[in-house]
Amino acid sequence: MPNMKKLFAASLLCAIATFAASDGASAQTHASQGLVVVAQKADAYTMDPAKHSSFSTANVLMHLYDPLVTRDEKGNFAPALALSWSNPDPLTWRFKLRQGVKFHDGEAFDAQTVKFTFDRALDPATKAPYYSRISAIKQVVVVDKYTVDFKTATPYPTMLFSVYEASFPALIVPPRYVKAHDANILATRPVGTGPYRFVEWVKDDRVVMEANPDYWGGAPAIKKIVWRPISEPRTRIAELKAGGVDIAENVPPGEMKSLQAGSSKIVSIPSDFLFFFAFDTLKPGPLQDKRVRQAINYAINVDAIQKAILEGTGQRVAVNLPKDAFGYPADIAPYPYDPVKAKALLAEAGFPNGFTIPMTSRQGYLLKDKEIMEAAAGFLSKVGIKVVPKYMEPGVWAQVSEKKGREGIMYPGWSGADADMVWYPLLATGQYQSYFSNKALDALLLEGRSTLDVDRRKKTYEAAAKIIKEEAPHLPMFQAPLIFGVNARLNWQARSDTLIDLRHAQYAR
């Protein structure tokens, strides 16, 4: 087996080495090899699912590891390592597990495996950046070899979101393997139960994986996947046209037409990913005054940005929540563009001449992020607010984010199909990405995540939305579309949660 691995890696490296010189014919070659090359915005941050908060990392890891629960093409929850789930009582979620599953190194999967995974992720020493997604879990109890109970302090309506693949630390890891090595072994040498096995990771160049022939769900049709970090959208598009990559993410709307012919095509889907500006209200400064935050909401013409930069794609949102998410308030309208009102509020807050403030973001990570930042800065300058842009590499951004070190006005991005998944981590006092604190809102957010009563949850989030609109801790913008350039021969479906899932992809014959 080791010799076969070396032969596979050597042959794949030869293929990778020819990418730069390839042309459209390479797309045919990739199909014949069963190879898919994905160009995404950033490299993986780690191979340990409990140690990151990046969707670029999650795209890679969801192919190496499995969650208890997945989501089908319609967004409905479906079995993965758990075959079924139930609520024996309001404080218990019981999962019946799949039998006969093995990790890539032969270790068996069972209830003790699930307990180890979640105990590890919940341990404060692990410092899981996505802890908020699983923090409602207070105890994991092994009922029998293939049954496990998750205990919560209060009823927890969004538990299934906590144990599927987009809840990064919920991907199941092997206890024996981790215990036999250094505690950080998974960071560079991952072992999972997933449809692909790890081959190599050359930092800032590629992650290579091969199909797992013994996968419990059946061997995947795509035999090899290479993940390439290409931060510049134009370079991703050029590589796609040349045949060097088979999927290029974050295609700008203006480039769609050029990719809808020949060896490529466009795959697009409405996303549940939110574009917004967040304000650091915790540090002393102008942003601690809600009148300033409201002024910024009035000052930026979101509709004009959407029309000019995103060419009318996407959906405007009134609060920072996807329009089809549970808890979205249908009766609240966005702040209108009103620079006169913005100036009046700034003067009322004691800033008649404006102020200077940093605006932090990644460049090339979100669709048209630099252009959107520049446009927003332009609108703010008209009311006297001078923005000092600060762009970070995605890896640096992740490190800064984990230390809660973002500054001033931030342009992050988030997703979630339920108000609890967006508002709790972003707005509840002390939570992972919350730069805001409001006791009345905290009480409502806690109530919304602590009952299984759907009507009660709706009323709770209606009240929360009114506080959020008034306090303006964010400037909500829009749900952007997901636009991918894809090899014309590749049959692949995008997911609205932004994850690039190749488990069911295949080339047309």
Description:
This protein is an alpha+beta fold and 509 residues long. It folds into 2 domains: 2-229, D-Maltodextrin-Binding Protein, domain 2; 270-482, Dipeptide-binding Protein, Domain 3 (Dipeptide-binding Protein, domain 3), CATH 3.10.105.10. The protein has helices spanning 2-17, 25-33, 55-64, 111-122, 159-162, 175-179, 233-242, 290-299, 302-309, 339-348, 369-381, 394-402, 419-427, 439-448, 454-471, and strands spanning 35-40, 69-71, 77-79, 82-89, 92-97, 137-144, 147-152, 196-202, 206-211, 224-229, 247-248, 264-279, 315-316, 355-362, 385-392, 409-411, 414-415, 474-487, 490-491, 506-507. The strands form 4 sheets. Strands 1, 8, 9, 10, 11, 12, 13, 14, 15, 16, 17 and 18 form a 12-stranded mixed beta sheet that branches. A 4-stranded antiparallel beta sheet has the order 4-5-7-6, with helices on one face. Helix 14 packs antiparallel against helix 15 (454-471). The model is unreliable at 1-24 (pLDDT under 50).
What's a quick, concise take on this entry?
α8 (290-299) runs antiparallel to α10 (339-348), α13 packs antiparallel against α14 (439-448) and α14 (439-448) runs antiparallel to α15 (454-471). The chain has helices at residues 2-17, 25-33, 55-64, 111-122, 159-162, 175-179, 233-242, 290-299, 302-309, 339-348, 369-381, 394-402, 419-427, 439-448, 454-471, and strands at 35-40, 69-71, 77-79, 82-89, 92-97, 137-144, 147-152, 196-202, 206-211, 224-229, 247-248, 264-279, 315-316, 355-362, 385-392, 409-411, 414-415, 474-487, 490-491, 506-507. It has 509 residues and is α+β, with helices and mostly antiparallel strands.
